[in-house]
Amino acid sequence: MAAPNKVCIIGSGNWGSAIAKIVGANATQNPKFDDTVKMWVFEEMVNGRKLTEVINTDHENVKYLPGHMLPANVLAVPDLVEASSDADILVFVIPHQFVGKVCDTIKGKIKSDALGISLIKGVDEGPDGLRLISDVIQEKLGITMSVLMGANIANEVADEKFCETTIG
Predict the structure, then answer these.
(1) Which of 23, 117, 127, 128 is the most exposed place for a label (fewest CB within 10 A)?
(2) Strand, helix or coil at 10?
(3) Alpha carbon 65 to its chain's center
(4) What's the farthest any 2 CA atoms get from each other in the chain?
(5) What pTM was computed for the model?
(6) What is the pLDDT of residues 104-128, one digit of tens each?
(7) Half-sphere exposure (CA, 13 Å, Cβ side) for 38?
(8) Chain centroid offset of residue 6 CA
(9) Number of Cβ within a 10 Å radius of residue 40
């Protein structure tokens, strides 16, 4: 039997934390996935504590998704390379303006056969015109990408309300 797939959520804002809640809960229910879901958190201080410490101890992202408990198997990691290097599936949930820097940081440090899925809103505007964020990530990292789109509002997803989503 193949080793369970390791998942990394790249981003921990409102949308990233909502997705981490769902992915974390689902990972423990399916033997095809490793129980631990890593979530890269841009480290910042909240009420005198590191945000990663708050998430890992209290299981809540009190800054970006207050009032929603994250599963205990969601591990907040402040180092992007450490969070993503052993992942089989990378879930990109960051503001589009940070895609370039994030990709440059992990390029050559992730599994070459990793799969990615972009939950990023927006497009990239460059000298060649508009480009899909998933195309930018695929070109920079050389990994296969998919995209999740739909009428998704982070707090409603975290509340496990009905949402319509397409993955392609």
Answers:
(1) 127
(2) strand
(3) 14
(4) 47
(5) 0.95
(6) 999 999 999 999 999 999 888 888 8
(7) 21
(8) 12
(9) 28
With 0-12 CB in 10 A as exposed, 13-18 as middle and 19+ as buried, what is 167?
A: exposed
Pairing of strands 89-92, 115-118: parallel
Q: CA 154 to CA 21: how far, in whole Å?
A: 11
What 3-state DSSP class applies to 89? strand
| pLDDT tens, residue by residue, 30-80 | 999 999 999 999 999 999 999 999 999 999 999 999 999 999 999 999 999
Rounded CA gap, 37 and 30, in Å? 13
Q: How many degrees, rounded to 5, is the angle at CA 11 between CA 71 and CA 144? A: 105
Q: Give the CA-trace dihedral at 154, 94, 68, 8, to 10 degrees.
A: 120
Q: Which amino acid is at 25?
A: A
- 128: its two tokens: 């060649």
Cβ neighbours of residue 139 closer than 8 Å, sequence gap 6 or more = none
What are residue 43's DSSP bridge partners?
Answer: none
3-state secondary structure of 35: strand
**Cα distance between residue 9 and residue 117, in whole Å:** 10
Say which DSSP state 71 is in. P
